[in-house]
Design goal:
Oligomer: single chain
Strand order of the largest sheet: 1-2-4-3
Number of helices: 4
Number of domains: 1
Helix content: 10-25%
Shape: globular
Order of helices and strands: EHEHEEHH
Length: about 170
């Protein structure tokens, strides 16, 4: 787990060491590298189904899906899990579908990035600030050492919507 970009409490360890500490709400952002739809081509050698399965990638996808499922099935009354559109194979392992797809432009950011929310005992998020002039900055981001970190950042407007819309119900 990466260190926090901001000061304040940030647990850097196995989430399952602290997950059963009587939490009221969990908002989780599990790694999506192996379970998101955009990773489908990597499940096959040389990115082509005709070449056969890349068994290591399939195993990593299964492990990622099982990690997600374990988060979803934890004993916390209210859960939100954020991830991109998921591979059908991973969805089958998890055994449930997302509750909602949202976009940054619905929360004050002029970008597109389809983001799925799996919600348990929480209402769907309502858009707070729909903006025009939408760009595909995240999708078009070039290779870099920080690419995965930059692609996984939560937009401030989305985080504020979660805090304002869900804080009254916990």
């Amino acid at each position: 787990m990466l260190p926090s970009d901001r000061p304040g409490p940030h647990y850097q360890g196995d989430v399952f060491d602290i997950i059963n500490n009587n939490w009221d709400l969990m908002i989780a952002h599990p790694p999506c590298t192996y379970i998101c739809n955009s990773s489908a081509k990597h499940l096959y050698r040389d990115k082509a189904k005709i070449n056969g399965k890349d068994e290591e990638r399939w195993q990593l996808m299964k492990e990622g899906a099982l990690f997600f499922k374990r988060l979803w099935e934890t004993n916390i009354p209210k859960i939100a899990i954020e991830n991109p559109i998921m591979l059908g194979y991973a969805k089958k392992i998890i055994g449930c579908n997302y509750s909602q797809i949202i976009q940054p432009w619905m929360f004050g950011h002029n970008e597109t990035k389809a983001t799925c929310l799996w919600l348990k005992n929480l209402p769907l998020l309502k858009p707070t600030n729909i903006v025009q002039g939408r760009k595909q900055r995240i999708w078009k981001m070039g290779p870099s050492k920080d690419r995965s970190k930059l692609r996984s950042k939560t937009y401030k407007g989305l985080a504020e919507a979660m805090a304002s819309q869900w804080s009254d119900i916990i």
